[in-house]
Write a structure and sequence with these properties.
With about 725 residues, the chain is mostly beta strands. Helices cover about 10% and strands about 30% of the residues. The strands form ten sheets. Strands 11, 16, 35, 36, 37, 39 and 40 form a seven-stranded mixed beta sheet that branches. Strands 3-2-1-30 form a four-stranded antiparallel beta sheet. A four-stranded mixed beta sheet has the order 4-28-29-25, with no helix packed on it. A hairpin with a 5-residue loop joins strand 5 (about 90-100) and strand 6 (about 105-110).
């Protein structure tokens, strides 16, 4: 039984087997953390959880391993890291352990050091590896070489090539004057996306650029990098408030450069204004946009073919409420999900079930108040052979575990508390971090003014437990994996001395065992319709890709943008290409003509904090969507016709589109009418890689059928032919 201990005695006492612990077949590594009640920009928050500052992370946690006989070992302490009591220069906090394919080492993130009294100091999460995981081995911790220094690098996993995939708040292009990137919601600091590092060469590049954040990547058995992405493509709510007389001080920079001018403007052009922005919506036919979800995404290890898992989206999973885009078209409706009886708001902490690779388990949790803990859910039919229309959501814990109980409200008998970090082990055992508390977290301890002591006390007590299935089919917390780990910890933050003398939270369990290394996935070869066009024009796929790589461009191809998925009735779906006979009709309602495909790039040009009493902006910038103006991309595409919107290409008569686009920067797009007014808009940001040729049947292509009940088209896209002819005329190909 583990009680309370400090110093070297911790390792010795931890060798004792815990008779109360559950039976587990393989070792389990996990982390401990001081129970910080606050849940905004904290280590366990849904977003803005990557910062290394003392208030965000606390100090005093460790990396532990639990052996099958119940024995525990404090791995970081045994390797000479960390301390108990008052946290100082040797103190640590750890997070995100991930096991190598051979089961012999773990990569994780660690922050080292704590501020002295009244000291303000910057701390960053960095990547470390630990070996010597056996019961009778001495662990050794080494820092990962050549990782981005001076930034927060978190959530590392091993790629199939032993390179390291992780998230980081390093600016997309490495320019420190853009640091930190601010998210699209609270203008809070966020990671800039997924990154890949070769520790031998030091080569590091972005797999994705995420305007609001990518979280918790894994590499599944199919070789896909699976992660949670925060999709919050909305205009800036702080700017909307300022338009109503607020005092956030939002403004635009003239460019992303360090010498950019501060403009007397907060103009935004993409997407449409948010709900509640009456100033911007006045006189329009637009419903204000609300779009906010944390959903499962996938990308290849080279950063290509990024999309939601199997093209699943809000129509299949539920997600945020979305109204019809236009107020004057009665055929447009608010979002209706007719495919899944079970719906989710978010999907956090995703893990693949090793006993059934067709399952992903995760947590459906609120954004605030529960430390990203809530209801455990399962997404089925996730293998690459399945279509999004076939994917289903299973509720594993009772639905009442999603919504926190109100203050003074009696929880339902089925409500067993909140869960996070679920994991199915190779022997089928189901484990998770669990707290029996059903309410939102709150500090029930003491706070203080500066220069005094405080004794925070969280309502939550996250403990690792096995789960058991009840007769009604739902799962609930069962046996603990430990008997609790207690440690005396105090630290300055930086004026107040905070004390913790309680059980530490147990989080992020991973099974320590060898796993089969999946085959490496790379960009697919072109499909037959696109190959046909290349052959007819005498252009090889290899030469086209080489041209793209040399210019750091990608090529996006759509075969018929008049097609829409059958479920999407929030945006127009009776579409016709202007001046042609190509059209797709979902009913006999209003017909919209489309003429241009317009792309937008995510520029970090929104500043914050410039108020009447301040002439100095706050650090960092938020992204805004602006028409593509990357010079290489603009000049590589055919010239615009008179009156065409900036950053666009003409839609071909068969409805196809082919456009050269900038890479390693978030992009989105819309199709417009002949006058340049948007008709249908993409609702997500995507990233393309140099040399990538991204093809799809349409914009929000049909999963199984379009708005007219037809399957996805397979016509050779004439827009690709027109682009190739243009490039050949310039001597580019």
């Amino acid at each position: 039984m583990i009680k309370k201990f400090t110093g070297l005695s911790l390792v010795l006492l931890a060798q004792l087997s815990d008779p109360c612990a559950a039976a587990i077949s393989n070792p389990i590594a996990f982390v401990t953390e001081v129970p910080i009640p606050g849940d905004f920009c904290a280590l366990t928050s849904t977003f803005c959880n990557h910062q290394g500052g003392i208030d965000s992370t606390g100090r005093g946690g460790d990396l532990w391993i639990r052996y099958p006989d119940g024995t525990l070992k404090n791995l970081t302490e045994a390797a000479g890291f960390g301390q108990a009591g008052l946290q100082g220069e040797q103190s640590i906090q750890v997070r995100d352990p991930s096991v190598h394919w051979d089961g012999k080492k773990i990569i994780f993130s660690m922050v080292i050091g704590a501020p002295a009294h009244f000291q303000v100091k910057t701390f960053n999460w960095q990547l470390y590896e630990i070996t010597g995981l056996g019961k009778n081995e001495t662990p050794v911790i080494t820092k990962v070489l050549k990782q981005p220094a001076g930034f927060n690098n978190v959530s590392p996993v091993y790629g199939t090539d032993n390179n390291i995939i992780f998230t980081s708040d390093r600016p997309r292009n490495g320019l420190e004057h853009l640091y930190p990137q601010l998210d699209e919601y609270e203008d809070a600091p966020t990671v800039s996306g997924l990154w890949k590092l070769n520790p031998s060469t030091g080569v590091v590049f972005p797999l994705s650029h995420a305007p609001s954040g990518d979280f918790s990547p894994i590499v599944d058995s199919f070789g896909r990098v699976i992660f949670t992405r925060w999709d919050h493509m909305q205009q800036d709510q702080q700017a909307a408030a300022d338009r109503r007389g607020g005092n956030f001080g939002t403004f635009n920079y003239s460019s992303e450069s360090a010498t950019a001018k501060i403009l007397n403007s907060r103009t935004e052009v993409f997407p449409e204004p948010i709900r509640g922005d009456e100033v911007s919506l006045a006189g329009t036919n637009l419903n204000g946009l609300v779009f906010n979800q944390f959903f499962p995404w996938q990308v290849n290890e080279d950063g290509t073919e990024m999309e939601t898992v199997n093209h699943v989206g809000r129509h299949e999973l539920g997600g945020s409420f979305v109204e019809a885009v236009f107020t004057d078209d009665p055929d447009l409706t608010y979002q209706i999900n007719s495919l899944n009886q079970n719906k989710i708001e978010n999907f956090f902490q995703i893990r693949q079930d090793p006993t059934n690779p067709n399952f992903l388990v995760g947590v459906n949790a609120p954004e605030f108040g529960t430390h990203a803990a809530g209801q455990i859910v399962r997404l089925t039919n996730v293998s690459p052979t399945h279509n999004a229309d076939e994917m289903r959501i299973d509720y594993l814990t009772d639905p009442s575990t999603f919504i926190p109980t109100g203050e003074g409200e009696t929880p339902l008998p089925e409500n067993s508390g909140h869960y996070r970090d679920p994991s199915v082990l190779s022997d089928g055992t189901f484990i998770a971090a669990h707290t029996p508390e059903t309410r939102r977290d709150k500090n029930e301890g003491t706070t203080s003014a500066d220069n005094a002591d405080s004794f925070p006390k969280s309502r939550y007590n996250f403990r690792l437990r096995t789960l058991k299935q009840l007769p009604n089919g739902t799962w609930t917390a069962d046996q603990p994996l430990t008997n609790g780990i207690t440690k005396e910890i105090s630290y300055f933050s930086p004026d107040t001395l905070r004390h913790y003398s309680t059980q530490l939270w147990e989080l992020q369990p991973v099974e320590v065992k060898p796993r089969t290394r999946p085959a490496r996935r790379v960009a697919s070869v072109l499909s037959a319709p696109e190959k046909q066009i290349l052959q007819e024009e005498g252009v090889s796929e290899a030469s086209l890709r080489q041209y793209l790589r040399s210019k750091r461009l990608a090529l996006a191809i759509m075969r018929n943008v008049t097609q829409r998925d059958h479920s999407d009735k929030q945006q127009p779906y009776n579409l016709a290409v202007a001046g042609s006979a190509t059209q797709t009709l979902g009913n006999q309602g209003k017909l919209y003509e489309v003429a241009h495909f317009q792309a937008f790039q995510a520029d970090q040009i929104r500043g914050l904090g410039l108020t009447g009493s301040s002439t100095t902006p706050k650090p960092g910038r938020r992204i805004l969507g602006v028409p593509v103006h990357n010079v290489t991309a603009v000049t590589a595409n055919p010239p615009l016709s008179a009156g065409a919107p900036k950053g666009s290409v003409k839609i071909a008569n068969d409805g196809s589109v082919a456009m050269l686009l900038p890479t390693r920067r978030a992009l989105s797009w819309q199709i417009t009418d002949p006058a340049g007014k948007f008709i249908v808009r993409e609702r997500n940001w995507l990233t393309l890689q140099p040399g990538e040729i991204r093809t799809c049947p349409a914009c929000h292509a049909p999963n199984t059928a379009d708005q007219a009940g037809h399957p996805a088209v397979s016509n050779p896209p004439e827009a690709l032919r027109q682009l190739l002819v243009f490039l050949k005329s310039k001597g580019s190909l």
